[in-house]
Amino acid sequence: xxxxxxxxxxxxxxxxxxxxxxxxxxxxxxxxxxxxxxxxxxxxxxxxxxxxxxxxxxxxxxxxxxxxxxxxxxxxxxxxxxxxxxxxxxxxxxxxxxxxxxxxxxxxxxxxxxxxxxxxxxxxxxxxxxxxxxxxxxxxxxxxxxxxxxxxxxxxxxxxxxxxxxxxxxxxxxxxxxxxxxxxxxxxxxxxxxxxxxxxxxxxxxxxxxxxxxxxxxxxxxxxxxxxxxxxxxxxxxxxxxxxxxxxxxxxxxxxxxxxxxxxxxxxxxxxxxxxxxxxxxxxxxxxxxxxxxxxxxxxxxxxxxxxxxxxxxxxxxxxxxxxxx
Length: 326
Description:
Elements: H1 2-32, H2 40-49, H3 63-66, E1 85-86, H4 93-123, H5 130-136, E2 146-147, H6 149-153, H7 157-197, E3 206-207, E4 215-216, H8 224-244, E5 245-250, E6 265-270, H9 272-295, E7 297-298, H10 321-324
Parallel strand pairs: 3-4
Antiparallel strand pairs: 1-7, 2-6, 5-6
Helix pairs in contact: 4-7, 4-9, 7-8, 8-9
């Protein structure tokens, strides 16, 4: 535990120092050199100051016009006005495919493992109805709720312990990696929504080195109404995983009740109800992103000053700096 706490503290120090270096470099760039294009506000400010001659006349260009390469003629001669698009179109098919396939694959594997634990308990005559599973507790070790005990006996005490540590924490690492993919995909969708809002009303830009009335970028890369919910769910999911699969260490005694360290062993304990909760939250997490992507649309909103609603949305640009520059 002390090692894990120390490494987490070191990680926090590194993140804080990296954030400090980024802010300092951004301030120096804003006064001494060309600006960084970190946020969509950086790109807008840069192209407003120095127009891109290569994209002049592409006023109605959208992401689709550049998906298959550079257009041979001006897209505003080919299309009329932008149409309202679903949020899922802001991200590429590859990004959607990789993120969703890995998330669904993990949920499927966890569901298979849950079925194995239920079958094992049923074979031992342990009740598996929901009230009984709840009574066993989340994160509580039970004599019949262990796995890989045979594998552990084939290893030395040290090897068995480290194997148990790696196996119990393997799911934490996998979920952390999937969280990065999930966060990246959601950030792309929300970034496109922020870009679309510029057609409805004037807003100050979010820059990595703001000046005057300009705003700074989001510290968590997403608006707080998304990032706070996302981090809360992530923390809850990681806690449930830690209570679903954990290390169980047995301490051996001889018939005279004297310690026998040579017989100490490590095994993997599990909580079926904890696995159910973790799988449910993960499934809801994935389903929420699918609902957002395939039901929400990028549409113009009514300006707060009471003006008329724009007749069409912004061209879908997403994180394409080429389209931001038109």
